[in-house]
């Protein structure tokens, strides 16, 4: 069922569905009242609901809450022009299966979302069924599934889909632990998560991980795990979805966003340097020509105008270089950082410590991530200057266990962590870190300064 009051939008959605699905049955509701009537009619049966977030008789969070009650077990996918990330995250947490923007919608993206949502809903519902129904789902599921012991981490049972996906026979699986299908460097994280699940007796868990098949190939999965009672209480069942293609698509989107941001910065920086600076330089020349015709009484006015022009030129050149650091292709990572710090601290306002590990001086190896690290540090320095009221800044760049770490510490006022109130600057930092499959950790508290640590796995860097 498509719940959409805009005829044009409905036509596009209908065409996308018809393009990808053979003879689909599409029911159209133009408002919430019609949708309620259709969902209450036992003669109708729906596989998925596509919901416009703004209907003439109901919208927003209220619409979501009431639609989820009416839909019951039917997957609900929101189609909207409202691109608020926080609202989307909240909607997903409430039970919405996906949140798609109309402006970015394609037939492929829509059908994938429908397929994933239907399969996910079926799998989640099946995991809560009786042991008999669970057994049938387990053995005939097209998705890899297994049961493991949280005390020993050993596989207890696997289905045929897992055998086919991972390449190990059932006998091989039963001699293995869940760490054997993961890269070694991920073992500590997995153990920590399983220990925490046992500690709090968590019923349901979902997360994204890297897995390995028998040939050593890495792929990304989204797993759904829940406890089961067969022989002992430490057993949990897991269903795994390969999201490698979805992750790649998200990475391409991130890459496009970052590229667009850089192009805009370069365009503005170049315009400032090549146009505005030239206009000011010409003004400076014209002013010099007037000097000889000025009386002594008017010279202070001349000197003041000249100094102001010089200051304006310096500020614009500095701004253009920060927006478009053309030097980063020519300099090493260390040199570009030192240049940024020198510009940032031109007034000697801060005591800055910069610790740069020698191994990172290999320009060719880190060229790919250099501009992104530069932008991350630039954003953090901007935040410190604007909010921290700090006097000391320490920056550490080093490699440990095949991970690159960049830590920025200040002795400023600190702040209360509130993930829901991070600004655009932090979102850009996080987007750049996630593009390299890294993590960002913030440690701060009022009066205790701030420490931000960026971790990037060196063997997982994306290629341009």
Q: Outline of this structure?
A:
This protein is of the alpha/beta class and 464 residues long. The chain folds into four domains: 2-123, Rossmann fold (3-Layer(aba) Sandwich), CATH 3.40.50.2300; 131-242, PAS domain (Beta-Lactamase, 2-Layer Sandwich); 245-324; 327-464, Heat Shock Protein 90, CATH 3.30.565.10.
Please describe what this structure looks like.
About 50% of the residues lie in helices and about 20% in strands. It starts with a strand and ends in a 7-residue tail after the last strand. It is built from 14 helices and 17 strands. The protein is an alpha/beta fold and about 475 residues long. The strands form 4 sheets. It has a 5-stranded parallel β-sheet with strand order 2-1-3-6-7, sandwiched between helices. The radius of gyration is 29 Å and the shape is globular. It has 4 domains: about 1-125, 3-Layer(aba) Sandwich (Rossmann fold), CATH 3.40.50.2300; about 130-240, Beta-Lactamase (2-Layer Sandwich); about 245-325; about 325-464, 2-Layer Sandwich (Heat Shock Protein 90). Helix 10 packs across helix 14 (about 425-435).
């Amino acid at each position: 069922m498509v719940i959409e009051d805009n005829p044009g939008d409905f036509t596009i959605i209908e065409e996308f569905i018809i393009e990808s699905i053979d003879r689909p049955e599409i029911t159209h509701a133009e408002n919430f009242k019609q949708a309620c009537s259709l969902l209450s009619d036992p003669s109708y049966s729906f596989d998925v609901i596509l919901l416009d977030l703004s209907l003439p008789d109901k919208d927003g969070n209220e619409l979501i809450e009431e639609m989820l009650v009416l839909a019951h077990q039917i997957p609900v996918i929101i189609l909207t022009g409202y691109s608020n990330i926080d609202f989307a995250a909240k909607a997903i947490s409430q039970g919405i299966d996906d949140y798609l923007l109309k402006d970015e919608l394609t037939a492929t993206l829509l059908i994938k979302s429908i397929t994933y949502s239907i399969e996910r809903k079926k799998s989640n519902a099946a995991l809560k069924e009786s042991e008999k129904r669970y057994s049938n789902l387990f053995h005939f599921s097209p998705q890899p599934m297994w049961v493991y012991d949280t005390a020993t981490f050993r596989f207890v049972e696997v289905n045929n889909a897992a055998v086919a996906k991972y390449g190990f026979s059932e006998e091989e699986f039963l001699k293995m632990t869940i760490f054997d299908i993961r890269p070694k460097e991920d073992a500590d994280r997995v153990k920590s998560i399983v220990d925490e699940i046992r500690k709090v007796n968590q019923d349901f868990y979902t997360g994204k991980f890297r897995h390995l098949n028998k040939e050593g190939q890495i792929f990304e999965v989204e797993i759904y795990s829940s406890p089961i009672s067969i022989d002992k209480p430490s057993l949990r069942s897991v269903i795994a979805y390969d999201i490698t293609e979805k992750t790649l698509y998200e990475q391409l989107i991130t890459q496009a966003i970052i590229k667009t941001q850089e192009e805009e910065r370069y365009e503005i920086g170049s315009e400032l340097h090549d146009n505005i600076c030239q206009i000011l330089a010409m003004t400076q020349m014209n002013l010099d020509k007037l000097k000889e015709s000025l009386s002594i009484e008017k010279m202070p006015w001349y000197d003041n105008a000249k100094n102001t022009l010089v200051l304006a030129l310096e500020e614009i050149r500095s701004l253009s270089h920060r927006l478009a650091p053309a030097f980063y292709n020519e300099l090493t990572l260390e040199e570009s950082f030192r240049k940024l710090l020198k510009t940032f601290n031109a007034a000697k306002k801060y005591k800055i410590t910069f610790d740069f590990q020698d191994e990172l001086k290999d320009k060719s190896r880190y060229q790919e991530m250099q501009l992104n690290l530069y932008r991350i540090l630039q954003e953090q320095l901007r935040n410190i200057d604007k909010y921290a009221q700090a006097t000391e800044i320490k920056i550490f760049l080093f490699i440990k266990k095949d991970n690159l770490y960049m830590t920025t510490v200040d002795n400023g006022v600190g702040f209360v962590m509130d993930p829901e109130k991070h600004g655009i600057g932090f979102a850009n930092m996080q987007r750049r870190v996630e593009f390299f499959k890294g993590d960002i950790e913030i440690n701060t508290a009022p009066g205790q300064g701030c420490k931000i640590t960026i971790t990037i796995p060196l063997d997982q860097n994306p290629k341009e």
